[in-house]
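#structure-requests
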Amino acid sequence: MMLSARYLLGILVAAAMLPSCSTLDVGSDYDPTTDFLRYKTFAVKRDVRVPDDVLAKNDFTQKRVFAAIESVMMEKGLRVVAPDSAELIVLTYAGVKDKVNYDTYGYSTGGYWGPYGYPGLGGGYATQTVVNHYQEGTLHIDLFDQQKKELVWKGWGRGVLSDGASPQERQQMVTEAVVEILDAFPPQK
């Protein structure tokens, strides 16, 4: 399986087309004792090695994610600085899992109807199960307090991967995923 063919951030195909009905499942968690308004600077850590990180295997996707994170964080009023002087360090990584979905449908198999709307002879009921194999991708964005060396905020987005997007569509999907994930930052207490 070649990851570029199964473009990791295709998880946003539906989100890009239907923002109000997104198929991207997002969530976040944070340290409630943290004063997030005190953070003014950040840096995206680019040389982190997370086991099975699919972003590390796709330079184009990784660059798109880094650029989108920087753009969204700057829109939130934070300033990009060198990693050694940043108040927040941003780590990002992604994973892919093979999934299987089973859908069973029931239907009647004919026959005739007897008096008063009751089934007559010759009819029946059958089921059919459809098996759907797909890949689910998850993008994680973690924010660490540089001084404390502690995780203070974590966000993620999870959805079904898709093939066939152009580079421009991929950039749009990545940007929309990052926007949706970082929408919960800073948390409203």
